[in-house]
Design brief:
Rossmann fold, alpha/beta, 7-stranded mixed β-sheet, 44% helix, 230 residues, single chain
Length: 230
């Protein structure tokens, strides 16, 4: 990939995006991701969207510096409220699941079967379940790590299939694409659940159903860890 250096999170988002005519990047901030998509001709045109005009100005300056501003539109907008017309790919990253769901709910009629690339920093299972509730399906997930923090990048297409509790928890990470990083992420996830279970068991009101859920999740993670090592 040519262009501007990206951290692991933005690099994985870049990798997740299929070649397209028009990409929309909500919460674009500095605009490095869409700039690379244009420089490498992965997308023909980019719509850079941010609720902050000051943040959007950084992207405008970058595109002018790279002489690629003719292939972009810069839109100050809360989500997709001010975005009109069709697009092929929608990227929403750098925010929590409630904000992502709110943006999608308010623009559900604008999606037109476009591909979704979503990266939330909270409540990943809730986001996965929501994706299936709007008749989309997760096709692949990527794990990224930046400064010791893990990120899950979700790629979803307008295909109606059934979700499940197990799928919402585990997702669709390709365990064999980056074994070392995925194993590291799964161990982190397991440790987090074990800590939650320990804290729950020490509380006054303990419910066996909740204990069973914790143990079920731990079993799912251990299954994945065994698969990686095979």
């Amino acid at each position: 990939m040519q262009g501007i250096a990206l951290d692991d999170r933005l690099s994985k988002i870049y990798d997740a995006i299929s070649p397209c005519n028009i990409v929309v990047d909500v919460g674009t901030d500095h605009g490095k991701l869409p700039a690379n998509l244009i420089i490498n001709d992965k997308c023909k045109k980019a719509l850079l969207v941010d609720i902050s005009s000051a943040s959007l100005q950084k992207a405008i300056n970058l595109f002018k510096k790279l002489n690629i501003n003719s292939r972009a539109e810069f839109i100050v907008s809360d989500g997709l409220n001010n975005v009109n017309g069709n697009f092929n790919t929608l990227v929403i990253a750098g925010m929590g699941t409630p904000n992502i769901i709110n943006i999608l709910n308010n623009a559900i009629n604008k999606l037109n079967s476009s591909q979704l690339i979503l990266c939330s920093n909270t409540q990943i299972s809730v986001l996965r379940e929501y994706i299936y509730s709007i008749d989309y399906s997760i096709t692949e997930e990527y794990i990224a790590e930046v400064s010791g923090k893990f990120y899950v990048i979700i790629k979803a297409d307008a295909i109606k299939t059934e979700g499940s509790e197990k799928l919402y928890f585990k997702g669709k990470v390709n365990q064999f694409k980056d074994k070392v990083l995925v194993e590291k992420y799964l161990i982190y996830k397991r440790n987090k659940i074990q800590k939650s279970l320990k804290g729950y068991l020490s509380s006054k009101n303990v419910n066996q159903n909740q204990i069973d859920i914790f143990n079920k999740q731990l079993n799912w993670i251990n299954e994945d860890l065994l698969n990686i090592k095979e």
